[in-house]
Amino acid sequence: MIQSEKLENIDFLKKSIEYLEAHGFEGIKTDLEGYELPKSYLKKGSEVTVTPDIVARKNGRKYYFDISLKSEKPKLLKSKWLFLDTLSRMNSNRFKIITTKGHYKFTDTMLDDINLSNKSLIKI
What is the pTM (predicted TM-score) of this model? Predict the structure, then answer.
């Protein structure tokens, strides 16, 4: 999700973290109290920063997670996903998208638009 929508969706972010912890992820970093902040990336030539919603480790591999909820700014969300996918492939990491009921179609359409339809969603 984009930065401006984080405050509205803190409950789903917490639910996602509980899900990841239950599935063996550790070293979780997110923009919540009690957790370390994940690294942010500044887009060259602009003021836009890209920060993954959640970064975690499992079996020695780093995973980037982004939460997909219906957004007012789909273009910004698409560019964030493309960047995180590219970053994860460059470093042999993994990029996953977490979504929930009522947002599946929106997420699938967005992934098709940017040719990432091979991504399997984590449905909570």
Answer: 0.92
